[in-house]
Amino acid sequence: MCRWLRNHAGDEQGADQEDRVAFRQYGSAAFLAIVDRFGDNPAAMRQAGIAYATDQIIDLIANGVNHVHIYTMNKPDVAGEILDNLSEI
User: Cα separation of 89 and 73, whole Å?
Assistant: First the structure.
């Protein structure tokens, strides 16, 4: 896993070229579009990442998944925002 992906939620640096190549190899098209658009703006990338994670969880729940474990790499505020987005689901 590349450094930027491990740290993207709240990271102050954004994605560099090497990280973008890693995403091209392993990431989904939707996530790659988010990184391309917002990767140079840490605050926007954080917000877009939270929205992306929320959408993925909604899709899982809609398709019968009853339990989801969220890894946020010691960023409980990110997990809290995702949970807030799912409060009525």
Answer: 24
Cα–Cα distance list, 2 to 20, 70, 80, 87 (Å): 9, 19, 24, 31
Nearest residue to 58 via CA among 80, 81, 88, 78: 88
Phi-psi region of 10 (alpha: psi -120 to 50; beta: other; left: phi over 0): left
Q: Are 40 and 15 spatial neighbours (Cβ–Cβ below 8 Å)?
A: yes
pTM: 0.70
Number of DSSP helices (H) and strands (E) in the chain, helices first:
5, 0
How many CA atoms are closer than 13 Å to the CA of 84, on its beta-carbon side?
Answer: 8
- Residue 23 confidence class, pLDDT cut points 50, 70, 90: low
Amino acid code (one letter) for 81: E
